Amino acid sequence: MVSYSFILINCILLLCPLILIQAQQPYIRKLTTNCGIRNASTSVLGYACNGVNQTCQAYLTFRSKPPYNTVVSISNLLNANITHLSQLNSVSQDHTFGTGEIVLVPTRCLCLGQFYQANATYLVRSGETPFLIANDTFEGLSTCHAIQNERNNLTSNIYTGSRLIVPLRCACPTEKQAAAGVKYLLSYLITWGQTVSGISAIFGVDTGLTLEANELSESDYNIFPFTTLLVPLSDPPSRLQTIAPPPPPQPSLSSPPDTSGKDHKWVYMLVGVLGGVALTFAIGLCAFWFCIRKQKKTSLPMVSSASQSFEAVEKPVDKKLDVDDDSEFMESLSNIAQSLKVYKFEELKLATHDFSSECLIKGSVYQGTINGDLVAVKKMHGDVSNEIRLLNTIHHHNIIHLTGVCFSEGHWYLVYDFADNGPLSDWIYYNALNSNKLLDWMQRIQIALDVANGLDYLHSYTTPPYVYKNLESSNILLDDDFRAKITNFDLARSAEGQFALTRHIVGTRGYMSPEYLENGLISTKLDVYGFGVLLLEIVTGILVSDHYEKVNKNLSEVLHDVLEEDDIDRNEKLNDFIDQRLQGNYPPQLAMSLVKLIDGCLDQDPSARPDMSEVSQCLSRILITSQARDLSPTISVQGR
Ligand SMILES: *[C@@H]1O[C@H](CO)[C@@H](O)[C@H](O)[C@H]1NC(C)=O
Ligand SMILES: *[C@@H]1O[C@H](CO)[C@@H](O)[C@H](O)[C@H]1NC(C)=O
Ligand SMILES: *[C@@H]1O[C@H](CO)[C@@H](O)[C@H](O)[C@H]1NC(C)=O
Ligand SMILES: *[C@@H]1O[C@H](CO)[C@@H](O)[C@H](O)[C@H]1NC(C)=O
Ligand SMILES: *[C@@H]1O[C@H](CO)[C@@H](O)[C@H](O)[C@H]1NC(C)=O
Ligand SMILES: *[C@@H]1O[C@H](CO)[C@@H](O)[C@H](O)[C@H]1NC(C)=O
Fold this sequence. Notes:
Elements: H1 2-19, E1 55-63, H2 71-78, H3 82-88, E2 102-112, E3 115-123, H4 130-137, H5 144-150, E4 163-168, H6 175-179, E5 184-189, H7 196-202, H8 207-213, E6 228-233, H9 239-243, H10 264-295, H11 326-336, E7 341-342, H12 345-351, E8 360-362, E9 365-370, E10 373-380, H13 385-393, E11 402-408, E12 411-417, H14 425-428, H15 441-460, E13 466-467, E14 476-478, E15 484-486, E16 493-494, E17 500-501, H16 514-519, E18 521-522, H17 524-540, H18 544-548, H19 560-563, H20 570-577, H21 588-601, H22 612-630
Parallel strand pairs: 1-5, 7-11
Antiparallel strand pairs: 1-2, 2-3, 3-4, 5-6, 8-9, 9-10, 10-12, 11-12, 13-16, 14-15, 17-18
Helix pairs in contact: 1-10, 1-22, 4-5, 10-21, 10-22, 15-17, 15-22, 17-21, 21-22
């Protein structure tokens, strides 16, 4: 049942681009910087008047930045109604916003000739150019082209002290959007490191709808800072959305809530009818995605030069946990671990036969039996508050479940659900000891997808978001069904701020991303790199350290042979590359998609790596398509 609905949901994701063919407004891309070229056929001048209405209520976002950091100054700059703006953001009219905070701005959008716009007026200061005004002052809510167009003369200069009309980019819903329940369009200002799915999740909007509203697609979704992205809304936006992270999804599902609920019934029906078509399509989508991505590699800078991006966010050690006194300890424990069982040391001793060597699994992890259930007990020193706090707040299918804790004589004991099949590292490598342990293609893809889902959950749906930082095959446990659970969270840390500098370089070297090893940069993209390494090991059956022996520095070089374009010997090279023990029992086309996925994850430039939600979408397509292949190819999927 679980896996069935899982597949269904992924089919819907898959079908989105097929159903929503008709686009709405072209995304502006990087055209904003080239002010010399006037090209009315692109969207630089504004969004086309293709809506139902000539005028409508619309919304903009603006990032508070002195001197435009108060309700009044922002309202004046963007010609917004002060009362309405303060109500929309749930603040008083004399409120000052923190620098970088997202401010929601209500505006009246009007069709003028070909384009929608909202007028702002602006007094030019010395040294300002249309580009500086559009990009730096208005943060991309307007373009130099639109400002120049307003003056109807491309070459005319703007003079200090003159009053300009600055057309702000807004739009009204099209007939198609209105039919889908969209009432407003929000012009969202993109900043560094954002993705369409991330922005959609902020407003609880289906990613497919946002892509469509901007004429983007799943194979072409690169977005750039200081440009606007239209977000289709059925209700006015609220400050709760812009200050709070998105709510966690149901365990093991990673799609953001869908606003087009009504449409679902026929989408479900379509799944049956179009299933066959879609599955064939999946291979293409996934394969091309990473090709295109590579070709169009964005020049999105990795870090903004602003020093504030480099905050050191090492968490202070929780002093409360260093106490030895039992009663004080229990009190502090109950604060962080309300829903955890607190075991007595005697109970754990009994469970593990006094921590006997027969019960030792590995390192300081013991197997035990409590009330007839198998558990794993890990003995730890030092500060374990990080792991307890994290595991106590998150509950996800693919993340190990912490059931209880115990503290005795200076040591912590963490009690987890037991994973029958042990660590993934016991299963994937060529090794005489493990000769009877072998995972088939489907099991490997399922495990990879499980890990991707767990990481995506940590990155996108926990508060605050976490970077796992500890990816390696021995930290992935397999249950009796060979479903994966991520474990060992002692290195995990908050990812607040997209990038942060850490003082201690820790983690497993072969899995660590170049930007972390060189500069200590931490972001969720660090896990994406680690995941690429893990996936490489999973499909080749070869330890990362052995892969490193074959390359200079850049791990993705091991993929070059297979990835070489137009190579007639490609299948042969693929056969050399994929785990020999599979003896060719894998679909070559899907294996190629997987190689491309690995290549994307191992990109030296973190911003060019996909994010975990994209990785898991891709893997779920590969899994679904592999499953379809597993059935007899003559049986039509329509019958389901
Ligand atoms: C103008 O836009 C058209 C259509 O989008 C495009 O083909 C053309 O290359 C553009 N011209 C310039 C100079 O950018
Ligand atoms: C400004 O907004 C408030 C509340 O939204 C509204 O009552 C008022 O009429 C608006 N004022 C103008 C000038 O539009
Ligand atoms: C915006 O400015 C243009 C001229 O630049 C003017 O024609 C139009 O009426 C203005 N729109 C509004 C709503 O003020
Ligand atoms: C646009 O403005 C932002 C922030 O004000 C700045 O960081 C960025 O470099 C500007 N873009 C260009 C191309 O100058
Ligand atoms: C544009 O402005 C320049 C300089 O102000 C002027 O010489 C030229 O005639 C103007 N062109 C148009 C089409 O108004
Ligand atoms: C268009 O305008 C009418 C009348 O103001 C309004 O009822 C309707 O909701 C608008 N449609 C859209 C899509 O905004």
